[in-house]
Amino acid sequence: MQIPKKLLPSDGRFGSGPSKVPHEAMEALASSSVIGTSHRQEPVRALVGSVREQLRALFSLPDDYEVVLGVGGSTAFFDAATFGLVRERSQHLAFGEFGAKFAKATSRAPFLGEPTVLSSEPGTHPDAQAESGIDVYAWTHNETSTGVTAPVRRVEGADADSLVVIDGTSAAGGIPVDITQSDVYFFAPQKALASDAGLWFAIMSPAALARVEEIATSGRWIPAFLDLAAAVESSRKDQTYNTPPLASLFWTDHQLRWIHDNGGLPWSVSRCEDSSSRLYGWAEQSSYATPFVADPGKQSPTVVTIDLAGVEASAVSAALRDNGIVDVDGYRGLGRNQLRIATFPAIEPDDVSALARCLDYVVEQLG
């Protein structure tokens, strides 16, 4: 099947992660001298410092919050948090793949008590419940697998020294957040920050930093790769404990500069909301497509999930891929006849509208 060129988007990358890295960012990296130099030297340390300062500005951080980074991505941070943030017991909201992964990590730790896991049907989210003895409450701000957004807020009635730990991986840079409602807001940059994999960033409150130090000096064995105390110490020197992926750092810095140049977080949030609303509006008017997340208050502005009826989603995504429109397949673990489309800041809203037109064309051709 050949989609008419006049219908095609200018860029056909709509993946939910790794996501679109703008061509100008890739060209900038090609002309940079950062690749091939030591991560202990000033050029890379300046790059790390730039990223940390730009994240501080993006989220309007209080003076006593710190930006910490390390190697390994969000999944590695689940393990790092299991070793370095949970004192005894955690509570997890599991409403998709990534919240469930964090819960699994803590449940398998032999030095922790059994976590509480609150689940809900895909397409919805549960709410945290205050529970005596819970010292970490954890959930995802935006569930990348299902396209559900959950609020970031303190847990009323929780123990005074409990921490709120939020996975912001597909939200950071595209969804509004009051960072002071959390103690740790962590994310990888290969989604809304238009970079590549291999890094995690964690914005930590004074209480979280104190918890890291407390556990690090408690005698608990912690693998060096997952040592949050080492990550905090290195980050304060604008370094990482292990060698970082320099391209990911460079592209994160490039995307943050672009966002700030255009108006900061309010601008990037508005752009994502513009793009996603075009898809939700199209699906609501469609004869074969329906937003998977029924509650508009829970619909993600950065990862849009669409159920299809009367046509195989796999056939639609295959036809789109043949025409250069890629990575719109639904999350495999859900097993639904579904498309999943990223609407991160780097994706042009007009390209989202073009994608909707291409979907209509493909479905019509498939009969």
Automatic annotation (TrEMBL):
Tell me which Pfam families the record gives: Aminotran_5
| Protein name per UniProt | phosphoserine transaminase
* Keywords annotated in UniProt: Amino-acid biosynthesis, Aminotransferase, Cytoplasm, Pyridoxal phosphate, Pyridoxine biosynthesis, Serine biosynthesis, Transferase
User: What Gene Ontology biological process does one annotation of this record name?
Assistant: L-serine biosynthetic process
Which NCBIfam families does the UniProt record give? serC_3
Family, according to the entry, reads as follows:
Belongs to the class-V pyridoxal-phosphate-dependent aminotransferase family. SerC subfamily.
Instruction: Give the signal peptide range.
Output: none
Source species, please? Answer: Mumia zhuanghuii
Which InterPro entries does the entry mention? Aminotrans_V_dom, Pser_aminoTfrase, Pser_aminoTfrase_mycobac, PyrdxlP-dep_Trfase, PyrdxlP-dep_Trfase_major, PyrdxlP-dep_Trfase_small
The Aminotransferase class V domain sits at: 135-326
Q: What's the catalysed reaction?
A: 4-(phosphooxy)-L-threonine + 2-oxoglutarate = (R)-3-hydroxy-2-oxo-4-phosphooxybutanoate + L-glutamate; O-phospho-L-serine + 2-oxoglutarate = 3-phosphooxypyruvate + L-glutamate
Q: Which cofactors must be present for this protein to function?
A: pyridoxal 5'-phosphate
Q: What class of enzyme is it?
A: transferase
* Function of the molecule: Catalyzes the reversible conversion of 3-phosphohydroxypyruvate to phosphoserine and of 3-hydroxy-2-oxo-4-phosphonooxybutanoate to phosphohydroxythreonine.
Task: Kindly list the organism's lineage.
Answer: Bacteria, Bacillati, Actinomycetota, Actinomycetes, Propionibacteriales
Q: What is its pathway? A: Amino-acid biosynthesis; L-serine biosynthesis; L-serine from 3-phospho-D-glycerate: step 2/3
Q: Where is this region: Disordered?
A: 1-21
Q: What is its EC number?
A: 2.6.1.52
An example of a GO molecular function for this protein is: alanine-glyoxylate transaminase activity
